[in-house]
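Lecture 7 notes: from sequence to structure.

We start with a single chain of 155 residues. Read the sequence below before looking at the structure.
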Amino acid sequence: MGSYQEHALEGASAVDLVVALYDGIIRFLHAAGAAAERGDAVERRMAVKRALDIIIHLQARLRMDVGGRPAQVLSEFYASVFAQILQASQSASRQKFEHAIECVRNVRDAWKQVARDPAVSPAPPQVLNLPGRRQGGFDRDDFGAESSSNSRWNA
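Now the structure, written as tokens:
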């Protein structure tokens, strides 16, 4: 990860980091869909692997003992999206990748709403005092559309 991005995510809340991971899934699914459309099996598989790696990471971090029913629902969601992505990859179907993207985007948007709630996701202390900084975490626009292009999750 580039130095700028490391510092940008350093002060991010846990919820902001989850949103960033969902953004990564979406980015890799777009890449997989484009590769499927081009008939590029190698690129499709690489992008799918990266998206699945993020899903596995998210699912492995669920705390069923603490999260209760919401954690169980997220676990089921991750299993469902995992299966959808595998099916999309097997059939090399951009349309199936787009469906998976919409499912992930819906849950990502819910996390984004949580990230905006200052009671749930307060701005870290080092961010609170920055001039012109709004509270409640980062927006993707804060770092530009290309901010995550150098992440270690990038295909």
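Residues 125-155 have pLDDT under 50 and may be disordered. Keep this in mind for problem set 3.
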